[in-house]
Automatic annotation (TrEMBL):
Entry keyword set: Signal
Superkingdom, taxonomy of origin: Eukaryota
Protein name: Uncharacterized protein
Species per Swiss-Prot/TrEMBL record: Clonostachys solani
Signal peptide per UniProt: 1-21
Length: 104
């Protein structure tokens, strides 16, 4: 029983570190970033799609529009969740002290 738990934990850790290994600049806890910023920082479309799906109220959009989504960083290791789809566009501020935002 304990060995099954430990082997499952080892697999989970292997996948977690492998998924984050490609990210060159992880987001900061409670930071809001556009999908386009995250893609520039090493996140991939699969990361954005998975994070976008975590919010059941988001509209269905194609992968090409994930760059127009505002994502929120939920922890200190770069985990993200899709916060909102920016219909007009997502404004990249380009500053670690100010969050990106939906343009009006």
């Amino acid at each position: 029983m304990v060995s099954n738990y430990l082997s499952g934990l080892a697999v989970l850790l292997a996948f977690s570190s492998g998924a984050l290994a490609q990210i060159t600049t992880p987001c900061t806890y409670q930071e809001y970033l556009c999908g386009s910023t995250l893609l520039t920082n090493g996140y991939v479309t699969t990361d954005l799609r998975t994070a976008y799906a975590l919010n059941p109220n988001n509209p269905v959009i194609p992968d090409a529009q994930l760059s127009k989504v505002l994502f929120r960083c939920t922890d200190t290791v770069g985990t993200i969740v899709g916060n909102s789809f920016c219909i007009v566009g997502c404004g990249v501020v380009g500053d670690n002290l100010v969050d990106d935002q939906c343009t009006m």
